[in-house]
Fold this protein.
Amino acid sequence: MPGLNEAAPRGKTELRARFRTEAGDYVAALAIAADGSVCIAGLGDGRATVLDMTTGRELSTFVAHRGGVLDLAISPDGRRFITGGQEEVAKIWSVDGSLLKELPGGPSAWVDTVAWAPKGERVATGCGKRVRVWTTQGEPIVETEPLESTATGLTWRADGGALAVACYGGVHILPFVAGAKARHLAWKGSLISLAWSPDAKVIACGSQDCSVHFWRLSSGQDAQMSGYAFKPRALAWDADSKLLATSGDAAVTVWDFRGKGPEGTRPVQLQGHKGVCSALAFSPRKGVLASGSQDTSVLLWEPRRGDKPIRYGFLEDEVTELAWHPHHHTLVGADASGTLRGWEVS
């Protein structure tokens, strides 16, 4: 692995550090509250840690699961969060570390993925081949029949009216609006990542066969973008639902969905990392993309303006997660050694 200062070509300006915290183990999940008050990380040793977003000060750290935390999601009001991990239950917590509810998964299956509905009234859990939706008080709402394989991704539509589930064989869409019907976006392949555009018009998935598959929901039309060197595990939409950033190599590939694209067009290739891209996140307010790499580097880009990085920073190990403050002014990155770093962006 390249040394810390040799990881990637430097952009115009180094990101200014706001805080740095050593969580002590692999950061497997990271999320920032919608009000920007706290950042929560789920760790490989089963702990969850809650940080103050202004200072990076640890507010609470506690054991969430017997095995590692695999996923987490914060409630819209920022007061609670749900974790899934190497255990047969999902758990709802207050940010002070108090356990509020346990949501059973299933025998001999971990809760791999969780999602909190945008309006706050429901949570979803994926445990093995079954997906369950609950009220936040722990009352069951719906349980799917066994899927074709383990659920690898859960994402709520932006209005909370539907839940998308990725697995082998395509994407299942579960409706939570009166009169709406469930849909199955079929594709014979194993899907490993899932991203629903903010305007709810397109669902994109990374695939085990080193491709990205997407569906236009109005027509059901689907297409495949292939040629990746590695599995595209990280996907990110911009706030306008026009650009889709994808991992799958050291270069970040950005597809433009404006006009007649991306079919028949060439994507933008953002080259700056020396190692494979491992994390992606678009800023919620501006067309700024953050990318992290196995080589420890974090780069900022403006894909609509050019293909060169505009800012840069480094972590201590492979970048595992990136998350933006809801008002754009702070980016938090996490790595495989447990370092959490906040950078000032505005």
Observations:
- The chain has no helices and 33 strands.
- The domain at 4-344 is CATH 2.130.10.10 (Methylamine Dehydrogenase; Chain H).
